[in-house]
Amino acid sequence: MKIIICTENGAKVKAVKEVLEKVWIDFSLVTEKFSSDIAEQPLSEEEGIKGAINRANNARLKYPGADYFIGMEGYVDTNNYGMFLAGIVVIINKAGKMGIGSSAKMPLPDFIQKKIEAGFELGPVIKELMNDEENNIRQYDGTNGLLSKGLYNRVDEFKDATKCALAPFKSPEFYEK
Predict the structure, then answer these.
(1) Cα–Cα separations (whole angstroms), residue 155 to 82, 94, 158
(2) What is the pLDDT along the chain (177 residues), one digit of tens a residue?
(3) Cα(first)–Cα(last) distance of the chain, in Å?
(4) Residue 2 in contact with residue 27, Cβ under 8 Å?
(5) CATH architecture for residues 2-175
(6) pTM
(7) What is residue 8's DSSP assignment?
(8) Is 108 in contact with 114 (CB distance < 8 Å)?
């Protein structure tokens, strides 16, 4: 089985791989960045889902013989209680069946929210805040890990979303009625 993971980000790849190893025994992974065809900083859950779908579909165009395509997108979403950070995973199989999963959501501090509202992307804001010249935070802990002091990191975020996105494939009897 050939699975395309539509990113080269270490945290996201690690998350997906750890979950897939619990689901399937024999598979090969291709990791490659694909365009989301949306803004660099998605500002709603809907935009995050659209970006993840676009990544998976762009991979389908390049690798039509693969079995599964996994698109991922981090996003922020604002409601009456503040701005929240979360991740989306979309899994599409070669027949076009889709599963969508979301991570838990973490509130962002006001000063970060203000930067995003001013048009900045979260990743570079955190990179500058932590003087992370080598972009290491994004590859494992992410903003979640930084804010929660390691209780919930970027790997956890995308593991949760991947598990949720697999539901239609694990329990087709409930989704194909």
Answers:
(1) 23, 26, 5
(2) 999 999 999 999 999 999 999 999 999 999 999 999 999 999 999 999 999 999 999 999 999 999 999 999 999 999 999 999 999 999 999 999 999 999 999 999 999 999 999 999 998 888 888 777 766 666 668 898 889 998 999 999 999 999 999 999 999 999 987
(3) 26
(4) yes
(5) Alpha-Beta Complex (3.90)
(6) 0.94
(7) -
(8) no
